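Hey, quick one: can you model this chain's 3D structure?
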Amino acid sequence: MRIFEFLVIAFVFAVTSCTIDKTDYEAETSSQIPEHYEFKEAVSLNNGTYKISIEALNGTFYKGYNELHFKITNTQNNQTVNPSEVTFLPVMTNAEGKTASCPHEYNPEYDAANKYYNGYSVFTSETALVSNWKLYVSFTLDNQKYEINKDISVEKQSNKNLNMTAFTGKDGEQYFIALIAPQKPKVAENALTAGIYKYNKPVNEAGTFPDPSQFSYSQVNGYTLKLDPRMPEPSMGNHSSPNNQDLTQQNDGLYHGVVNYTMTGNWTLNLIMQNQNGLILKGTVVPTDFTPGVEGVKSELYIDTLF
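Sure thing. Here's the predicted structure for all 307 residues.
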């Protein structure tokens, strides 16, 4: 009888803890998780005659996925121009002088309706004292090529729903997964969007810096991200939720699925990445045990979120 009473008390305590945590996270969500839907100029590059304005959400470059708009104007008449080609290359230099890039769209595509070039960059680190980012941009107009570069600042992403991860797969390739949407999930089934990219190892010796062939990345095609969301905090028991859908690639090149958040709080998106042949490149199955009072086990491939 005493054992039964102890179990009841323990259960009530666990439920109460869950309720308290939920209430605290709702307050945190409403005041701290930002949502940005307006594109503003994050940086401009000038060569005298022409100006390139690069717009990003909130006018800021963040670690993780950034959709970018490139607008080019003639500074003499303030008219928008449409070059025949635009190239974009972000390069990070560390304290030892070593350089690297990140997933990006080297040849942004022109959006005729909005009169800008559309691209993206998945910055893999923030600007720091030991590392800095520089953008190398070029465009061709009237058969003349213009090249401009400028240092930029990449800020910390304070919204964990837009986190990213980088890792080496079992095939020896370097991969990157970046969350793109939703910015602010709901207690419901949420459409989940992510980008999956890989580094393209150079096949030739480096040419004149910055040689884009040494900094090449691409979206991966035909992969699957198997999804198992859990609440890993001890008070949550690492419980999951029903009606989740694995992420698969759609026509936009991005990966789409469904994550069902049953309450606010800390969630971990446990992932298993399979290539087009079904080979697991990274990730492990998470135990299904309900473990109140014990921090939940995570896949070897995961991304944490909070809302």
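One thing worth noting: Residues 1-31 have pLDDT under 50 and may be disordered.
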